[in-house]
Specification:
alpha/beta, about 325 residues, four-stranded parallel beta sheet, elongated, six-stranded parallel beta sheet
Length: about 325
């Protein structure tokens, strides 16, 4: 900044106020501001976020702790997070906690207040109690997204998964289906909300879950395929199936084709998440759309607001977002 001050013929404090867009009791003339900006651009000035953090200034960085990079769902979440952060003038520092439990705690040495202005948790972190304990005392505000079964400790945004499952099942019931199976993907920390919502619906609407209609499986394409084969082998197979994730639902579509089961002529299929490929399967998958952009937008707005106002309350809270039903070609009335 000293070099910029010399090049533009102003004081270093004026350079600091211009580059940090800081308020000033003495207005800075537009031509002076432009001269400083041009000098900074010519000299290739880039603010060092770590140095800014050491001086107590904003680093314009948001730390994001992701439960698992290998989960295809979080690829879309991370993309939305980066886009939304940049719209607020922030960049994102990523870390993940997939692996041993003791690998999560050192993340806070990178994401603490001197390095990031706020921290976003992506995914259920109940399996990492040391990380959560460390973040409870973080000077940087923490916001949780898709926290699942994690204890409610920070401002949090979650999808209304129970209502989403019910909406998919109501769609099938409205088409005339009564024999509805469920493919329940194994989720972290034995998360069963989607499965429980299915069981509750079947009990309320049809008196219970028929034997063999609830199939638990790996949350993969192969898991969905194997679960569908087992489901269709019961004495009176269902005319419709709901899956707890799109990946499992797409695996079911593939298995149905391999077994000569027409979709939706003989079997209707509903997914959950609306990942990108769901609109391009054959037939295109009816599913519940996860409100990724709404949840990420809420999370970033919360994180930025808390970072800019240290006196703002950080009490635990939960904001719930609905999942719209997206009807495509994989559902129809039963044969």
């Amino acid at each position: 900044m000293r070099d910029i001050a010399v090049a533009s013929g102003v004081s270093q404090s004026t350079v600091s106020r211009v580059l940090n867009n800081a308020p000033s009791r003495v207005p800075i003339a537009p031509d002076t501001r432009e001269r400083v900006i041009q000098a900074a651009r010519h000299l290739g000035y880039r603010p060092n976020p770590l140095a800014r953090g050491l001086r107590g200034a904003s680093t314009n960085l948001i730390g994001a702790v992701v439960r698992d990079f290998s989960d295809v769902f979080y690829a879309g979440v991370i993309e939305a997070l980066v886009v939304e952060s940049m719209a607020h003038g922030y960049n994102v520092v990523l870390g993940h906690v997939h692996g041993r439990l003791d690998e999560a705690t050192p993340l806070t040495t990178v994401l603490e207040t001197r390095h990031t202005d706020a921290i976003i948790l992506l995914g259920d972190m109940q399996g990492y109690p040391e990380l959560l304990a460390d973040l409870r005392g973080s000077p940087a505000p923490v916001v949780g997204l898709w926290q699942g079964s994690s204890p409610l400790e920070f401002p949090t945004a979650n999808p209304d998964e129970r209502a989403g499952i019910r909406a998919g099942l109501e769609h099938l019931a409205s088409l005339g289906h009564r024999r509805i199976g469920f493919l329940s993907a194994e989720l972290p920390n034995n998360y069963r909300i989607r499965e429980e919502a299915y069981a509750d619906f079947m009990r309320e609407r049809f008196g219970g879950v028929p034997d063999g209609y609830l199939q638990r499986c790996a949350g993969t394409l192969d898991g969905g395929a194997s679960a569908l084969a087992a489901l269709m082998a019961v004495p009176e197979p269902p005319t419709a199936v709901a899956a707890s994730t799109d990946l499992v639902g797409i695996g079911a579509l593939h298995a149905a084709h391999g077994h000569g089961i027409a979709v939706p002529g003989r079997l209707s299929v509903v997914g959950f998440d609306d990942i990108l490929i769901s609109a391009h399967t054959v037939p295109a998958l009816t599913t519940l759309r996860m409100p990724i952009h709404e949840i990420v937008g809420f999370g970033i707005a919360q994180a930025v607001a808390l970072a800019r106002d240290p006196s703002a309350g950080r009490e635990a809270s939960e904001t719930v977002f609905p999942l719209p039903l997206v009807v495509r070609d994989s559902t129809a009335p039963p044969p």
